[in-house]
Amino acid sequence: MKPIHWRRTALGKYLRHLPRPKQFRGTWLHRCCGDRLLASELWTPTRQRFAAGLAVGAFFAMIPVPFQMLAAALIAYITRVNIPIAVAATWISNPFSYPVVIYAQYRLGCFILSREPIQLHGEHLLGEISKAPVPYFTGVFPSAAILALVLYPITLKVWDWGYAWIHAAKIKREAAQFAKKAAPASCSAENAVR
Prior knowledge:
Helix content is 65%, strand content 0%. The protein contains 8 helices and no strands. The chain has helices spanning 12-15, 28-33, 47-61, 68-79, 83-89, 98-113, 125-130, 133-193.
């Protein structure tokens, strides 16, 4: 899909309301960060920068700090990876998935420290884990690093698969259009011979 035509899609009617990089020019954010903030490689998804942005966002999604999106955007800006993907990837840890993430980080911390995990009883997950915060905080950074390191190559493979699928569909569509144009010409040539 050409970059101009995304506005004509069903999703485009919602995406057109998002701010564009050119709208940041002259703002206080542009004055603080300079022209590097407006560089197209930070906003346009490419294979490497998309995968790295997803890894940065996933890393910060696993860390229980306030302003995860701001931290992911700052690190994405510093490392020059895709900022929108890094910010969007922080939503891996949303209110529905975070209890599972907390428990998995706690169990990983218990495994690293060779401790026996305490028995957790249903609704009071945070209350129970607050009694033993050391295993939880021990499991935070390894789980974040593992998720980021696993997501990066998977994203590259999915990008390659998606690109190959789109390219094959384009070749198939072009072949069908060529066959459609060639069919009337061959029919008229057969009629002329008779």
